[in-house]
Every structure is written in C-alpha cells, then in structure tokens.
Design brief:
This protein is of the alpha/beta class. Helix content is 25%, strand content 26%. The strands form three sheets. Strands 5-2-6-1-7 form a five-stranded mixed sheet. Strands 10-9-11-8-12 form a five-stranded mixed sheet, sandwiched between helices.
C-alpha cells in the first residue's frame, strides 16, 4: 500500500478533506516558508524532472496541494536518493516524504503514515523482445535484476535472490536501474508496479513481463 510518510513528532494530522487542513506548530513547520517535501526525483510517474529542470508528477501535484491547503507559500521539492530519504526525515531536513512510500510494519514503528491511497505490487520490467520467456520469479534463474537501493523491491530481491538464483544490481535512481535493462547490462528491473507500467509506456523496447503481489506494497 502506497502512502505519504510523515514524521510522527513533527506533524499532527487534523484532517485532509473538504476545508480541513493539517495543524502546524513549532519551528519545524514555519508557516511563512515553503513546505519542504522530499521525493526520489526520477521515480516516474510520481516525481520526474523535465528538460527545463522543473519537477513534475503525481506525487509533486499532491505535495503542492497539501502546501496550498496548509496556507504555506508554495512547496519546495527536495530530491533525495531513496536509500537516504528516511534519514533526512529523521534529521528534519524536510517535513515529509511524498515519494510515494510503501507502508510496512518496520517503517510504521518510526513514522506516521497517511491512509494508503493505492494498492500495488511489484512489476518485473524487461526488454519486449524477450518478455515472453518470463512467466514468474522462477524464470529469473541465472539472470541479473536491478532495483532502487533501499526500496521494497530491493527487500524482495534480497530475500529471494538465493531462492530463485538471480543476481542483484542496486542503483540510487530507478531510472538508472531501468536504463541498465535497456542497454543490456541487466535482464529485469523490479519496481513498484505503477512505475514499471509507466516506464513501459514511455520506452517502446520495454514490457512488464509479470507482476508479483507481496502484500507489502
């Protein structure tokens, strides 16, 4: 399940519907400054950088709407590699993560989440020319998969590499992990299913071979 991640000690939720807004108190949330939001920019279609340098995407739109409802003068999107994004939240370098973020019991012990807004799974993205040979994880034997370092996809790959007999390449940006598949340096990219599906619409050489639903995202 995907959600917005919030640091429990920094933000209290008063409501996010109709005319209700989030309550803001203390120096961590200065009402006269833009809302500082962390995102793993490049994880399309949630947050991606245009040639102009502007950051757009579904998560970015949500973040700007939150800033508007809070009465803040805009939103500042801070690009953070996924593997470091939670550390920055705990260090108060930004106010929340709009990544999106998968809700897991381990993360919920340290962070406050909004209610989930999308049930998803993992997408296994490969070159269209060879996609038919992949029916499920069993077909990954002897292959190389790429993941976004520190993600739920990374967790799944780490837990299942020995079982299914594949190797893992980790990247700080999922866009780079996908590019490794495009160029033939790896066989399959594993990411949140919506991100994999979007990548397949943007890159004609790629196709989602199969999904896996783990119950963790």
């Amino acid at each position: 399940m995907l959600a917005i991640a919030l640091l429990l000690l920094l933000l209290s939720l008063a409501g996010f519907g109709g005319n209700r807004v989030w309550a803001q108190t203390g120096a961590d949330h200065p009402a006269d400054q833009p809302l500082k939001i962390a995102a793993d920019v490049g994880f399309a279609p949630f947050a991606m950088r245009l040639p102009s340098g502007e950051v757009q995407g579904f998560s970015v739109d949500v973040g700007k709407e939150i800033a508007k409802r809070l009465g803040r003068p805009g939103a500042e999107i801070i690009d953070v590699n996924w593997s470091a994004i939670f550390a920055g939240l705990f260090a108060k370098r930004y106010e929340f993560i709009i990544a999106p973020t998968n809700i897991t019991p381990e993360r919920a012990e340290r962070m406050l989440f909004t209610e989930g807004y999308m049930q998803t799974g993992l997408g296994f993205l490969t070159r269209k020319a060879v996609a038919a040979q992949y029916k499920g994880p069993e077909d990954l034997k002897g292959k190389t998969v790429t993941v976004n370092n520190g993600s739920v996809s990374d967790t799944w790959a780490t837990e299942n590499a020995a079982r299914y007999g594949f190797k893992i390449q980790r990247y700080d940006k999922n866009a780079d992990a996908i590019q490794a598949v495009v160029t033939g340096r790896a066989d399959v990219n594993i990411a949140d299913l919506p991100a994999s599906q979007y990548a397949a619409t943007q890159q004609p050489l790629l196709k989602v071979a199969f999904p896996v639903y783990t119950g963790r995202n």
